[in-house]
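Task 17 of the worksheet. Students: predict the tertiary structure of the chain below and write it out as structure tokens. Keep your answer in the requested format; marks are given for formatting as well as content.
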Amino acid sequence: MKTIACLGNPGKKYRNNRHNIGFLLGESIARSANIPLRKREFSSTTGTGTIAGQAVLLLFPETFMNNSGVALRAALDYYRETAENIIVIHDEIELPFAEFRPKFGGGHKGHNGLRSIIQHIGTSDFNRLRFGVGRPPHPDMAVADYVLSDFTAGELLHIEEILPGVLDALTGIITGS
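Model answer:
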């Protein structure tokens, strides 16, 4: 089973933050694949179904970003899965807004959600789907303030428009193509 960890922070306050792109994309993926997100387990909201003929667990950690690894580790232990079956969807400040790229392995580059996952699963060798949120618009703006700021209405609309490409990228990771 592929475990797709959709990173974000729980609660209305964070709903449309740049840091919550994993949650936003994950919810769209769930709708597209008809996967209900109803279960509460592993300190997360989860749903199981199939994407590209593969069984998947969609995992939305409720532990806040900085402790995402706790939830993912619990799911891996329960299903006796390994890092090779993980796909993490997360925000990436090093990519321009709305650019997305799959990646295997690498460091956390200061991303606290990835840092927590690497710490709790003991490796950085897992698949990622990085979604660009860009860098702060001016150099004196703290990165944390920027990623915790909301997307504009236009940006949210653009994310919806490019969702088919995001789904294609995810399918490519799942199928290995």
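Marker's comment: The beta strands are 2-6, 39-41, 44-51, 54-61, 86-92, 100-104, 127-132. The chain is about 35% helix and 25% strand.
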